Structures are given as C-alpha cells and as structure tokens.
Amino acid sequence: MQAGNWSKVVGVCLVAACPTVATGWQTDDLNRFLVSMNCEDCDLRIVNFVQADLRAAGLRGSDLTGARLYYSVLIGADLVGVTLTGADLRGANLFHADLTGARLVDANLAGANLVGATLSGADLTGTNLSGANLFGADLSDAILSGANLGSALMYRTNLRGATLQGARMEGLTMCNTVMQDGTINDSGCAAK
Questions:
Q1: Is the confidence at residue 32, as pLDDT, over 50?
Q2: Res. 11: pLDDT tops 70
Q3: 24/43 Cα distance (integer angstroms)
Q4: I want to staple 46 with a disulfide (CB 3.0 to 4.6 A). Which of 24, 96, 185, 186 is the partner?
Q5: What is the CATH number of domain 40-184?
C-alpha cells in the first residue's frame, strides 16, 4: 500500500495508530473505494472504518464481513446486497441508507440510526438492534429471526411479510407500525 493511501486509512479509522486496519480486504478494492467512495462488489472484509464519514458511499454487492463501522456516518449509502455478517455498526448513522437484500447475520446495530432506511428482504438473523431507531424504516420481507429488538423504536416502520420468529422484543416501542400481516400496531403511541 502506498504511503499516501495509508494516511487516508488512518484518517478514516480515526485511530492514532492503525497498523492492522484490516486483514481480509483486497488492497486494490480499498484504494478504489478511498479514491471514489464507490466500490461495487468489493472485498472489504474486516475493514476498519470506525467513526468514518461514508455519506452516500456506494458499496453495492460488497463483502464487509466482520467490518468495524461503529459510530460511522453512512447517510444515504448504497448498501444494496452487501454482506455485513458479524459487522459492528453500533451507533452508526444509516439515515435513509439502502440495505435492500443485505446480509447482516449476527451484526451489531445497537443504538444505530436507521430512520428511513430500506432493509427490504434483508437477512438480520441474530442481529442486535437493541435501542436502534427504526422510524420509517422498511423491513418488509426481512428476516429478523432471533434478532434483539429490545428498546428499539418502530414508528411508521413497515414489517409486512417480515419473519420475527424468536425475536426478542422487550421494551420495543411500536406506533403506526405495519405488522407482518398488514395490520397496524399502535400499542406504543402516546395517549391522544
């Protein structure tokens, strides 16, 4: 990796010393992404983008298995069909990000901002969504089996056709939420 590119990586991960930024990614893919903020079908496994500003990033179809993205800004990012299995996205800002068909099995999205995000058809099996804000999120046909939705907020969230088998929902707040069968759940709405 060229010296100029290391400075970009260090800046992206916001760590004083970042000698092991990642171990699984392809150098060419990482360089292409850092230059253009777009990298379709890239291998960025285990990449370290902690607290990175990745607004409107284009990573469609890329593999970010095990990536460290906690507290990163992914507003409006194109994450259609990405693999984020085991990724750490705690506190990440995914406002209006498109994760259609993404694979987020066993990912950590605790406290993430998913306002207006599209997760239609995404696989969130075993994912930690505790405390996540899912206001206006589209989770239609998503798989949430075994997911932790404890203390999450679901206002105007679409769950039509979603699988929630074994999902933990203690403290989950729902208001004007479209359920799997199309009914509306207003159980968490404030008294009028």
A1: yes
A2: no
A3: 8
A4: 24
A5: 2.160.20.80
